[in-house]
Amino acid sequence: MIKRIPVDALAVGMYITDLNNDWIPHNSQRKRGVIRREETIEKIRTLGVKYVYIDISRGKDSQDAEPAIDVDRRNEARLQKAGAQAPAMLPKVALADEMEVATAVHSQAQSLVSSFMNNAKVGAAIDVAPIHQLADELQSSVLRNANALSCLGRIREKDNYLLEHSVNVSVLMSLFGNHRKLSADILHQTIVGALLHDLGKILTPEEILHKPARLSPEEFEVMRHHARNSRDILAATEGIGEITLITAAQHHEKLDGSGYPEGLKGEEISEYGRMVAITDVYDAITADRVYHKGMTPTQGLKKLLEWSGDHLDPLLVREFIRCVGLYPVGTLTLLESGRLGVVVETNESDQRLPKVRVMYHTRFRMPITVETIDLAKPGNQDRILRAVDPGDYKLDIRKFLV
């Protein structure tokens, strides 16, 4: 049986199955195995981890440990409660109409961020005007129909993670900032900050940045420098606002002070730093990478709830869930009929009833005619039972998002 246990209750002889620290990029600590020395427990503490998961069938148990299934049920209940409020943004144009524009903007965004990073890396003059224009175009697309860029954000390639992640975090910040009704100027600055939050990685050695194996503690320390490097590069760039600097600099800070680069605590972290931390973690843990299989969107939201309080702002996490929806775009769902459908549009009036694109029948174990179903449409007899993992059905949902 898998259980969750506080790090302070860990003991030699326990078998760790999950360090519960997927928010840490390239974390250097081995993720599973028997604890054989007290030093291992101390290393886990230094990661800022509060709880880990143990397998009591392979190691010691503890009265302080709680069955993982109970943790998941509690997080599911919290997710349902947090998602009870309808999304704040209503699409102004049809998804099909916005998709062509969004595709062009998304492609342009990756190209522009890549160019910006390359220029910064070689010390060339940096023109931020195109970045500001891009931020406005991303915001305009989100306002017309946020589902378009959200769909594109789920179509990813492992080898292009850095650029895709930068663009996706900026889209999520646009969604989040609109939901929170930030002023136009502040929202613009946070989008720019999200686009460039990982700019400092251009100073990270390639052999560390793209290492498929676990990093050594020394290599991980080098990796951690990227947040401060992002701030320093942007601070030396003309045309970058203070909120953009703060957004980029604070994306790895944690409420309990275990984050970096400054180890800020609670209200010491700006509202925008706390927002971008949520969007950064959510996109990172739902992405497939060379050293990490991405969670489903719903699993990702549950993890945000689990990590809230210690690492993430709990009030902002709940607002983020209301913003992206109970079943975010890209979620594969099992319907009552036995069909599988990927969410392609959220529902402005009831998050439980999005539009889904069905493609597979679980009872017959075979593909079916692809069609888009509006679960909120009068006369519809189907409903979502739960979110499922595409890997369990060997489905590539990217094929069905556009």
Automatic annotation (TrEMBL):
One Gene Ontology MF term: phosphoric diester hydrolase activity
Residue intervals of the HD-GYP domain: 140-336
CDD domains: HDc
Listed SMART domains: HDc
Keywords: Hydrolase
Pfam families, alphabetized: DUF3391, HD_5
SUPFAM superfamilies: HD-domain/PDEase-like (SSF109604)
Keyword Hydrolase set for record: yes
Protein name in UniProt: Phosphohydrolase
Native species: Marinobacter fuscus
